[in-house]
Structure formats: C-alpha cells, structure tokens
Design goal:
- The chain is an all-alpha fold and 58 residues long.
- The chain has one domain.
- It is 67% helix and 0% strand.
- It contains two helices and no strands.
- Helix 1 packs antiparallel against helix 2.
- The termini are far apart.
- The model has no long low-confidence stretch (mean pLDDT 70).
Amino acid sequence: MPMSKDTAASLAMYVAGLFSGLAMAVPSNAPSLWAAVRSLYNTTFLPVFLPLFPLDLE
C-alpha cells in the first residue's frame, strides 16, 4: 500500500529519532555491537535517508 509523502516523512523522522536516541544513550566506549550499529547509522542511514526528507534546521 503506497504511503503518502507526509506519512513517509513522519516514519523517517521517527526512525531517525529512534536511532539517534540509541546512539546518544550508548556511550562512545560501547561494546562492538553498538559501535557497529552506530557506524552503520552514520555511514548508511544519514546519507541515504536524510536527503530524501530535507529539513529546515535553523
């Protein structure tokens, strides 16, 4: 079922918030699993999904 653009943007923002909440909750000297998740988020999620939903962060 196709999603409207607003629904897709809301979903992307929710997922982004979830990931950044996890990344901030986990200390930088975290176990390798969390380090892997954080590096995956930084290298894959941010450059791929954020350009799809440009935000005005002022």
